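Prompt: For my understanding, could you write out one protein's sequence and backbone structure tokens?
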Amino acid sequence: MKINHLALGMVNSYLIKTRDNAFLIDSGLSMNRSKLEKLLLAEGLKPCDIKLIILTHGDIDHIGNCAYFQKSGVKIAIHQDDIEMCRTGKSDSGRKRKGTLFTRIFHKFLFTVVYPPVLKHYPCETFEPDILLSDGQNLKNYGLDVTIFHIPGHTKGSIGILTAEHDFFSGDTIINRKKPETAYIIDNEMTLQSSIEKIRKLKIRNVYPGHGMPFAMSELEF
């Protein structure tokens, strides 16, 4: 299994290549579609060559290209608790934000001033997921030896994806913008803490976050 980090502006996608198939973890914003296609082409792949896109959660910066790929025959998988975000193309604006006052103001500015005109020109096309994921599910039947862990808190349907080599795709439950840290956009603080405790118990070598560079699990201070 080979993991390629595909940096799509402020958000990450990850390409997993096995001997027989190619998979994507998250798909980025629709405005980054051409960049995503160029990165895939550099790996000798077209959109139709992707067997499955696994979504860590339903925020628009992670699902933005799914409808486009789905039209090429690519299957889309997500936890059932985030399915409505795929159907509406909308994120939950009522979630809490932690961090410094500057951080909270900055992100409110992004979501209320910067993003709306961008999304008007690059809308998130809605879609119906093909596969609904559940806690403890293994995807060997799809040709990928990974296990799904339901880790709500950032969104209700957030998942982590653990490979047999102990690499962990954390979505936005764990990010690494300035340093490795847990989510600062929170749907539910209690469920997030329960998810962090769940992650603590896993044998993880490297973390592949939804934002920022991958890092060794030993760098994360819970």
The chain has six helices and 15 strands. The two ends are 28 Å apart (CA to CA).
